[in-house]
Write a structure and sequence with these properties.
Blueprint (H helix, E strand, L loop, with lengths): L10 H13 L7 H26 L5 H15 L8 H27 L7 H13 L3 H16 L6 H5 L5 H17 L12
Helix pairs in contact: 1-2, 2-3, 2-4, 2-8, 3-4, 4-6, 4-8, 5-6, 5-8, 6-8
Length: about 200
């Protein structure tokens, strides 16, 4: 059973978010701007969760699920062409956070759930690896934490709050969006534009 392309996420959908962020002159210190960036991130996480739900219920097989995830990843991680460098940096932060979401989803489909520890264990290991400047290992641990979140484990906010700012905290920020999407896969609607 094949899903029509773009059912989960489209270039146009991503571009609509980018255009809105570009139009709004985004300032991360401003609550509305920060919410817009978070909505962009959550919206992508929701698309990922919908693919995983269809994989879990057998609508998509492993190969189709991985292909859909790859398709969304290619749209979202494409370099953004905007004139304002600060806006590009802010979107880049969202993309960095989402890297872990995509890899966790792909790992979940291809390899299943990591079972050597809890979400907190994996994130602690990721923070240690980042401190040792082993970023590949740090990402790997965050991805494993992500598979646990997909499986229903909880990412406690205090775990995230204890992290120093860096790549691990960005990836965990993405995992927080993943968790939000798992709990309520309908949060972000593009109709928010009127607000």
């Amino acid at each position: 059973m094949s899903t029509p392309p773009g059912e989960y996420y489209t270039d146009e959908r991503w571009q609509n978010w980018i255009d809105r962020i570009d139009d709004e002159d985004v300032d991360p210190e401003n609550e509305d701007s920060a919410r817009l960036l978070l909505n962009l991130q959550d919206d992508t996480a929701i698309a990922v969760v919908k693919i995983l739900a269809d994989y879990d219920d057998g609508t998509l097989d492993e190969e189709a699920a991985l292909e859909e995830l790859r398709g969304v990843r290619e749209i979202v991680l494409e370099e953004v062409a905007l004139d304002d460098e600060e806006t590009v940096m802010l979107i880049d932060g969202v993309q960095t956070s989402l890297v872990c979401v995509f890899y966790a989803a792909e790992e979940y489909v291809a390899e299943g759930v990591a079972d050597e520890g809890t979400v907190a264990d994996y994130i602690a290991a990721a923070a240690d690896a980042e401190a040792e400047e082993d970023l590949d290992a740090a990402l790997g641990y965050c991805v494993q934490a992500g598979t646990r979140i997909i499986d229903g484990d909880e990412l406690a906010m205090e775990v995230a709050e204890d992290l120093d700012y860096g790549l691990v905290s960005e990836w965990v920020n993405g995992l927080d969006s993943l968790q939000t999407a798992m709990e309520d896969p309908e949060v972000v609607e593009e109709e928010d534009e009127a607000s």
